Amino acid sequence: MTVSSLGSRAKAEARPDRPSVVELRLTAFAAHRRAGFPLGPLSLFAGPSGSGKSSALRAYEALARLGGGAELDEVFPDPVACVPERARPDAQRRRGFRIGCTADGPEGPVRLDVAVQAEPELRIVGERLTAGGLTLLETALRDPSRRSVQAAWHTAGSSPVTRAPLPDDRLGTPLLPLRVAGKTDGQRQVLAAAEQMVVALRSVFACDPLPRSMRTAVPLGAGRLLRGCGNLAEVLWRTRSECGRRHGLLVDAVRAGCTGPVHDLLAERQPGETGRTGGTGGIDGTVQALLDRGDGLRTPLGRLGDGELRYLALSLVLLTGPGVLEVDTAGEVPAALQTLTVLADGFDRDLDVRQREGLVRLAARMCERGHIRLVGAVSDASWAAGVGGVTVVDLEP
């Protein structure tokens, strides 16, 4: 075995098995221009109001949804708000924005950059997928009168590239498996890079717990936690019986972040109105979440403070998995090769010192294992400086 092959093998072995986004680029998006942000397993965007924390998370979520195949108008219902405020239209009165990211994984770093036209009509006008300095996919708007872009992807066969039109209302990268045959080494490289990018982007759960929606009883449903965590009670009804170990860890976390003794956290069925089948507590019943204080007293979550409720909900998110969260996973890829990314805007909102420090330490422990990552937004991250594994991105207004 030669020295060069040993080096190549060592480099390949050092690559992560689970694809993940390691950089977010906002070339021109809202308040950001020519900005690139490194992302670790646990990253906190920190800065005062108006510094662009929420818009950075919004751009990440947009890329995730586009990577899952969503149409452009679903992802950007108000695209003009994403255009930099001082951006001037060109001669055709066009304005837009540019976002991108880098996903690291078995194929090494893969870059995706997207240019979106917001005015006069919403459409993707350019996309580029690159790896190792090689352009694997490139699209461009050639004819504004047509609802398509001209795409060219790497072939490395008898013809160096293949050209074909792609729709201008969705990302081209997740469409490549439907268009690329995979017969040549070049085509297989394109497919592998596209798959890595899509897997890195797909499993994203954007979460911003709303305490007011968590205080009341809710009907039983699919048991998958929603973005605002308003259905937390029905999720607890499911998870408490499904995984005793994780539920025990959640109770420990809640005990550390809530005032007063906490013996258990549970959901209790509430009597419903009389239905057609007669009786009560049947198909019309709801469930309510409570803290068991251990002395016969059960406290409904409606009595807890906003900080306690947000702490409880975020702890549940960190301690559970994609099967319990309302998230779009890559079903064709084994779970062991996927990473769930939690986007938490206002990560420290309403939390006291004890709660925010406990929550970030819990997040650091969970992210260290590799199956979950977290990108949060906080007003100030100085309190997290002593926690290992935290990447702080300071934003200047």
What distance lies between the first and last C-alpha atoms, to the nearest angstrom?
54 Å
- DSSP summary, beta strand count: 17
> Could you name the ranges where pLDDT drops below 50 across 5 or more consecutive residues?
1-12, 274-283
Helix count, DSSP H or I runs of 4 or more residues: 9
- Class computed from helices, strands and strand pairing: alpha+beta
- Tell the overall outline: elongated
Please give the share of residues in helix: 25-40%
Identify the strand order in the major beta sheet: 2-1-4-5-6-7-8-9
Q: How does the major sheet shape up?
A: 8 strands, antiparallel
* N to C succession of SSEs: HEEEHHEEEEEEHHEEHHEEEHEHEE
- What proportion of the residues form beta strands (DSSP E)? 25-35%
Radius of gyration: 23 Å
Q: What's the rounded overall pLDDT mean?
A: 89
Would you kindly provide a written description of the structure presented here, covering whatever features stand out?
A hairpin with a 6-residue loop joins β8 (148-154) and β9. The longest helix is centred in the middle third of the chain and has 18 residues, at 185-202. With 397 residues, the protein is α+β, with helices and mostly antiparallel strands. The protein has nine helices and 17 strands. The protein is elongated.
